[in-house]
Design a protein that fits this description.
Shape: elongated
Distance between the termini: 24 Å
Helix content: over 70%
Number of strands: 0
Length: about 130
């Protein structure tokens, strides 16, 4: 019985749908992040950051989601947003951006991801 439940969870169609949902969350997040980075010259980053955010954000988010998917909606969104935003900030830090910038965008990324993931996880959990 337990083995059947695990196999059902690993259904390729279900995994693909989950990947698409995570991709959608990350694309919407990246759009809002792009807008915020355009607000000030102090916030500017190279254009390559945005496609990279989509690629790595989706990969990080997908793995994170698979680990936490049994959590309640709010817990799932909080953990998802924290892990993705924290790991994406590593690049800023390693490339020598000021700590103030890194911490500001850690918070900004977390808030955007939290709002977007809460909304989309809620919509798609009903399906």
């Amino acid at each position: 019985m337990r083995k059947e439940v695990v196999l059902k969870k690993l259904n390729p169609k279900r995994l693909f749908l989950t990947l698409l949902i995570i991709l959608l969350v990350v694309v919407i997040f990246t759009y809002f992040d792009y807008l915020i980075h355009q607000l000030s010259e102090d916030y500017s980053v190279p254009p390559r950051y945005f496609p990279n955010k989509i690629i790595y954000g989706t990969l990080i988010g997908f793995i994170t989601y698979l680990i936490i998917n049994k959590q309640k909606l709010i817990v799932k969104s909080l953990i998802f947003s924290a892990v993705v935003s924290l790991l994406l900030q590593v690049r800023y830090f390693l490339e020598g951006y000021p700590l103030k910038f890194v911490l500001e965008f850690l918070i900004i990324h977390f808030v955007i991801l939290l709002v977007v993931s809460l909304a989309l996880f809620k919509v798609f959990s009903k399906r």
